[in-house]
Amino acid sequence: MAHVEFKNVSKVYQLGEVETKALNNVSFDIEEGELVTIVGPSGSRKSTCLNILGGMDSVTEGQVFFDGKEISKYNDKQLIAYRKNNIGFVFQFYNLIQNLTVKENLELAASRTDKKQNLDKILEQVGVA
Question: Is the full-model pTM beyond 0.90?
């Protein structure tokens, strides 16, 4: 069983009467420990795949599995737990709160987990202490 499975995934965005087919019957598997790169030109729907895998967007058709569990059927509460416990995102456009310091932004992010972090050490490790 694959760690990640996309099975015949389609995504259609609807704005009024206009439909935009973002994904059309996409299927792939990723094994645990496998390093995968998604490449393509701007607008080729790479982010759509990642947003669906990350539980931030839903499929129109098809199924998405993570560790054998069908995340494409999860409700909002299940998706929150899935994102909290399984997914990490580095956004293309950073999502920092401008009027907070780097440390305050980290403190805000750390407050969303039960895992205790030494934020001063983390800031030092990445060279922004």
Answer: no
